[in-house]
Amino acid sequence: MPKLPEKFFHCCVTSPPYWGLRDYGLPPTEWPEVTYTPMTGLPPLTVPAWTGCLGLEPTPEMFVAHMVLVFREVWRVLRDDGTLWINFGDSYAGSMKGRNADGQGNPGGYHKQSGGQSGGNIDYKQFDFSSLKSKDLIGIPWRIAFALQADGWYLRMDNIWNKPNPMPESVRDRPTKAHEYMFLLSKNERYYYDSESIKEPISQSSIERLSQDVQSQRGSSRANAGGKTNGNLKAVGGSKGAFGPEQSRKRSGNKERKSGEQRGRPDSHLGGSIPWEGSTRNKRSVWTVATAKTGEAHFATFPEKLPCPCVLAGSPQGGIVFDPFMGSGTTGIVAKKLGRKFIGIEMNQEYIELAERRIKRETAQMNIFEFGT
Residue 47 in contact with residue 69, Cβ under 8 Å? Predict the structure, then answer.
């Protein structure tokens, strides 16, 4: 990464190796002493120099420090209006179980589940959990998010990857884990973000509500779970029959807040007014996406639909997308299919070869409209 030019990439979409998951048999890295702030308002923390592989640090604090160090370099190569999207799962102290919601390793494809040349299982006795209680949720995603925030990044959103097909768990004293995080961070207060490209269709219930004959409606008592006591809830709308799927695209939801030439202009709000009502809505922060596997290796990859909104919103057509933990190359495949350029970094030669095969095969007959918006 040090050889990459400054302020080069439009966005970075990545899924780093999770802490304490697996030994990949890679040569150890010499990490320098790192000073970072765990959270804004807390005193700085210094971790000593260490030689080893990322993800196998003895303490969560050292792992977070190394993540901060990596993303300081990402800051350097990211444009001033660039965004950083990081996928992370969590784990529990003592057993490291629940490390991610499908039980099959980093969804970016970095964590292989079989032994062999790519490494194997690890001895959890090498980890120091003295700062945690047994069975504690470690909170790695949030530790990293808060440390990056304290390091200068703007922490903008904690998107939830909701998995409809999580790996079953045998635990009986907590729910089965079925989610991970996709954090959105930026270098500056204002940054490139194409919200139009990732808008969602409004729900059928919203279409039906907007299409109601408001004038003859009696209202309902649904407010406060049916406990509303100060009168029935009346629907809000215009003239009789005014709202339908087609009409709703033409009606602004913020006319009462604007005057003169600004009234009804969907592009005249800046960071706070009510958006234009229509058949689409702003993308929500819970993304329901099923897990996926490659046909070539025994590890899970995050599905192409997961980084898709990150690439669409974070970069323009022809923009350059970066993944410093490329794994099996899913981010690169998505970037190529969506008409972006891509550069990835990977230390494992086996994964490099796999990523090259996947990107070449799956983008041979590209259809940039495959994902939709």
Answer: no
Domain contains 149: yes
The DSSP 8-state label assigned to residue 118 in this structure reads G
Q: Using only C-alpha atoms, what is the Rg of the chain?
A: 23
Is 373 contained in some domain? no
Q: What is the pLDDT of residues 68-121, one digit of tens each?
A: 999 999 999 999 999 999 999 898 887 555 444 333 444 333 333 323 334 456
Specify the amino acid at residue 44.
P
Give the domain CATH number at 318: 3.40.50.150
Residue 323 falls inside a structural domain: yes
Q: Residue 265 — pLDDT band, cuts 50, 70, 90?
A: very low
SS3 of 183-207: the string is: EEEECCCCCCCCHHHHCEECCHHHH
Supply the range of the domain harboring residue 256.
202-218+233-281
Instruction: Please state, in angstroms and rounded to a whole number, the distance separating the CA atoms of residues 19 and 60.
Output: 7
Kindly state whether residue 356 falls inside one of the protein's structural domains: yes
- Name residue, tokens 């003169």: 260
3-class SS shares of the chain: helix, strand, coil, % to 5? 25, 20, 55
Domain co-membership, 252 together with 292: no
Query: What's the DSSP call for residue 41?
Result: T
